[in-house]
Here is the input.
Amino acid sequence: MSRCPGPSYQDILDGDAAQAPAILRETGDADLGADDLPIDVYLSADYHRREVEGLWRKVWQIAGRVEDVERPGDSFVYDIGDDSLIILRTQSGELRAYHNACLHRGTRLRDEPGRLERIRCPFHGFTWSLDGDLSDVPCRWDFPKLEEEGFRLPEARVDTWGGFVFVNLDVNGGSLSDYLEDLPRHFEHWPLDRRAVAARVERRVECNWKIAIEAFIETYHIVGVHAANLPFFGDANSQYDVWTHGRHYDRMLNASGTPSPHVSKDLTDQRIIDIAARFGMVDPGTRVPEGATARTVMVAASRQRMQDTLGLDTEGVSDAEVQDVIQYSLFPNVVLFGGLGSPLFYRARPDGNDPNACLFEVMLLVPLPPGAEPPPPAPRRFLEPHENWSDVPELSYFGPVLDEDQEIMPRVQRGLRSSRKRTVTLGRYQESRIRHFRQTLETYVPR
Here is the structure.
């Protein structure tokens, strides 16, 4: 496969890869499939309906964080398409996921998160315990044939991994462990359940949920959307890994602190650092010592920042884990980051039954020092249409980057609607993860 001219990701590591976990050097090879893929999956209301039935009602999917249901009685609501679940922790400490509809006349039981002692229908007062048992029926005498056992709240399956709460509406499907395949092994060095939720922001975006996910699983768009980052981000040097044994996950590695092959080769290390300082990557006025490079200076600054702000000792941790983007996607709709330098999480899901809109969520999951107690999680914030990601100070320098992505995603959706070419054409290497994503989607929702 051809790549853009310039050093590979491995070359950029400059020997540091020998200190990194072996998993960072593992590569895969999988059938890349077709280059031209149909666009109806982003536009069609009929496809969305089949997607709800064949995908969202079949797969394991992240509904929230364990912190959302840490104590007995804690609850939150998870909506996907027309389906809705109340996820809660019982008094005995179990996690449950109940379908969010009264068994009397179908009223939606809950809309908001909160602490519960019971689940009570707001219409007629039918009430269930946190264990799902019917506990009260007003005018019980008027329902002589009602049997309590038949009025238990129906459940979806629920499980946890990496500090996330997963749900599956298919009671007959496989286990979460089987669904995750080999992904947990990749995160043994970066346990996601040892993270603090430093920011949690969601907004409605006027594009299909797949457009949102695909926007973040390649760096090919950096030259068009984030061109100001090119002096210190090796976009076209990225490594993309798709494995034949991994249907539900894949990976990319992006080098930071080295210039893109798209910029001038005359760019000096000092010039790179001066530009990086504008983005908060290093302190203003930082100088590149003799014999050093922009990358080594940025790595040292990142290590110092993690020590000062998070109390993390990064001795023995590879430069790649400290500085670079180590990113995984988990099918269908989640982007997870390994390493320490980009503690991000992305999730996109349909906004109801509108194929032209999605709910897009960003979290900052910062690593905790060994033995440290996590602080209270940051409150969830929903952005209004007039607000920007950069209006959220907790997102730090990620906010302006997300604003640039936010601008382009609806343009993709609008462009697809007006397109006379009924396919998208993918690059063979840099967009291989999108192809892998579409191949897996096809197994759940055949066209």
